Structure formats: C-alpha cells, structure tokens
C-alpha cells in the first residue's frame, strides 16, 4: 500500500497519529518530558534485547528472519513513537533538528578524515 | 523555511540524509544492528540526562527555555537518526511499523477504558 | 538470618555466587564485556520501568509497598549481579573502584559548595 | 592494600561510603527512587559506550589495556554506587536480594539444560 510507506508519509502525519492516540486517552498529563524520556530509554533497551547475546555479525542476519524482523520493527516503532510524543509535548520540529544535527556531525566527522574509521576507536 | 519542517518532509527524505552520511564515511561496516541498537540506547540515555534531577512538573518548563530546548532537540535528532540508521540496515519501513504498532496499542489500551489512567498504575 | 545481610557479606562472596552460576552453565563464552554491558543496561531499564509513570514523590512511597519493593529488589539484584559478572570477566576490584571514584566525586562536588544543590541544576 | 579489596570489604561498608557522601551534601532530597533509577540507567549507558563499536571479541581485550580498564572500572563504580544509593533510599538488603535472585535464576535456567546455551537464543 503506497500510502503507508516512508516515501509517501510526512513526519507530521506520524506525529499526528501519536498525538491523536495520546489525546484520545487524555494521557498528556502523564507525558511530562521527564516521563517520556524514561519511556523512550526503556523502549531502546527492549530493542537492544533482541541483539544482546548475538555477535555483531549474527545481528545482521536478523534481516533474513521475517518473524524476528517484525519484532524489531515493533520496537523501532515504539522508540520513534515516543520520540514523537516528546517532540509533541515540547514543540520541537524533528526534521529541522535532524538536518541541523547532520550538519554538526559533518563538521565533527569530516568524510575524508573519518572514512572507514570511527573517531573514538 | 517551510521546506525543512515536519509537515513538508517525508520520512524517506530523512532516512536518505542518514544513509548518505553513513555511506560517505563507509560506516556501514560498523553499523551492525547490534552496534546501532547500543548507540541508540546511549543517545536515549543522554536525552534523559536533561531531565534526570528535575521533578516531572519542572521538566515541562524546558519548553520555555530556548537554550535547553535546543539541546534536547539535538538529542532527539540523535535518537531518531540512529533509529533510521537501524531501519536502513535492516530494510524496515518506519511508517508501516508505526501504523501497525498504533493499531496494536489501540487494542491493548482501548480509549474508553484507559482515559486518564495508565494500565500499569 | 544474619549471615545473609549486607553487614555480614563481603563483595567477594557475592562475586563468587555470580561466578559459580556462570561457570556451571559455561556461559562465560557469552559474557564478553560488550554483551554483559548490554545486559546490565537492559536490567537498569527494567528497574526504571517501576518508576516510569510516577512522580518523584510517589516513587518514594514504593518503600511502603512490600510487593513492589520485592520487585524492585529483584531488579537491583540483576543490575548488581551483572556488574559483578562484568568485573569478574575483566578482573576489576569493585571495592577499590568505588573507593577511588568516591574520592574523585568528593573533589568534583565539595560538600560545602554543593550542599543542597546539584552541579548541573 | 588488603583492606580495600572485595575479599575484605562488606557490602554494608560500601553502602555506608555512599550514604555518607549523600548525607554530607544533603542530596537525599534529590534521591527519589525515580531519579536514582534514571541516574543508574545513564551510568549503565556510559559503561556501554566503551564497548559500543567493538566486536564482542575485541571487547574482551579491554582487560589487557590498563588505561581503558581504569575507565571501565570508574563506570562500574558509578553503576554499583547508584545501585547502593537506591538500596539505601528504599531500605533494601542487596546481599539477600542477590541470593534470592540467584535461586530464582537457577530454577529458570537449570544448569544441565542450559549448559553452553542461552534460553532466548
């Protein structure tokens, strides 16, 4: 269904989905930035749990296991969903934040100096 | 600048930004799902750090502090950026994942039963 | 039972309990520092989960709820247990590490300057 | 110095070190279980950061690098230190909690069935 893909979906549409879900349950009262940041970190840990005992190479093979991949997709949805819930509470534009951060990162890690190596290894 | 807002940006455009950044540095070799899930959890912790010693109420007032807000926006960018890097490595469509998860959540937390209360409180 | 209390138990005794558990299952092969650090972070998130939607004040009242307190004690056991598993793999003396860190912290946060306030608030 | 090793240090002695540090700064007011659980998760993430881009095998070689090992020991001290701060606030006996949890774990993962393999892999 083309209308549900990343190529055809704006960030604002996904944010609205999350905002509606929260509003319908009157959950904004629980969604202080402190609480949502905790929820986000907890979901990030649940995502990590899928890779915890695997070697780095074995973790790549998740891509070939549809059942595992669906579980991982679920956790990514939670992480991005809570990121949007937090942005909603604070009035942050995610696209601008990512664009600004990528520019900072490009200055910090110039492609010609960091090709094939991480700064901190 | 309208072209940089969430209303005018598709998820795919942001994913491409992240993919290009990784490709230009040949960093995909480090981006095993295991490693990226760790990076994501670390960024989620850095986001939490901004709210760590605040009361839940005080954490809402970050919205009125432009300097703090910019720092938080930076961390959200990192979290969503790594979520996209992970989705890129695994070939996961984020919009579909979020839509599917919101439907699951709506079944788990029917609005009429959970209005104003969390399931686990 | 006095023999099971913190006043009568050395750190080494607890480390030995953890080491025996790992050895009996031949799990040291999975206990690379990278993997154990992930396990530890995941348990820390599970601990946080108990306080996620509470206000800071309400979180103190867990102390009066024996059932909740037992769940929290379980999670603390996991966190400290994995910290010991990591120290076992790397040959780190925890008591020395804590004593050294407390001296550093005392220099960083002199009691007379930081009484009643955090450095970063 | 024998008196500073894990073999000669009770858990209660380390807890007292942490309790004194907190009391001298009147920081108990900030140490709600919610806040301390966040601090603990943040330190766990900082610990993970040392292993983030390494393969599982490379992470074992940290044991041979004294400078890196000292940094990791510092982070373990923070994690265990906050675990103790939380136990102090809630009146939890860590040794009893670990002994009880190890018994539960032994039932969940019988040595003869789980030798050389994890339950969830």
What does this structure look like?
- Four copies of one chain form a homotetramer.
- Chain A has 121 residues and is an all-alpha fold.
- In chain A, 66% of the residues lie in helices and 0% in strands.
- Chain A has six helices and no strands.
- Chains in contact: A-B, A-C, A-D, B-C, B-D, C-D.
- Chains A and B meet through helix 1, helix 2, helix 3, helix 4 and helix 5 of A and helix 1, helix 2, helix 3, helix 4 and helix 5 of B.
Q: Say what oligomer this is.
A: homotetramer
Low-confidence stretches of chain A: none
- Taken in chain order, the helices and strands of chain A follow as HHHHHH
Q: Kindly report the greatest chain-chain contact and the residue count on each side.
A: A-B, 79 and 79 residues
From the spread of the alpha carbons, the general shape of chain A counts as globular
**Residues in β-strands, percent of chain A:** under 5%
Q: Tally the helices of chain A.
A: 6
Structural key phrases:
121 residues; 66% helix; mainly alpha; homotetramer
Summarize the structure.
The structure is a homotetramer of 121-residue chains. Helix content of chain A is 66%, strand content 0%.
SSE blueprint and pairings:
The structure is a homotetramer of 121-residue chains.
Chain A (H helix, E strand, L loop, with lengths): L10 H14 L8 H17 L6 H5 L5 H25 L3 H15 L2 H4 L7
Helix pairs in contact in A: 1-4, 2-4
């Amino acid at each position: 269904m083309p209308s549900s893909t990343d190529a055809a979906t704006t960030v604002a549409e996904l944010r609205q989905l999350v905002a509606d879900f929260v509003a319908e349950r009157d959950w904004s009262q629980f969604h202080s930035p402190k609480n949502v940041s905790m929820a986000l970190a907890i979901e990030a840990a649940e995502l990590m749990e899928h890779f915890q005992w695997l070697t780095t190479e074995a973790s790549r093979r998740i891509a070939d296991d549809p059942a595992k991949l669906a579980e991982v997709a679920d956790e990514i949805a939670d992480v991005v969903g809570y990121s949007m819930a937090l942005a909603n509470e604070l009035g942050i534009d995610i696209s601008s934040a990512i664009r600004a951060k990528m520019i900072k990162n490009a200055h910090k890690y110039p492609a010609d100096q960091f090709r094939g190596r991480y700064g901190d290894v």
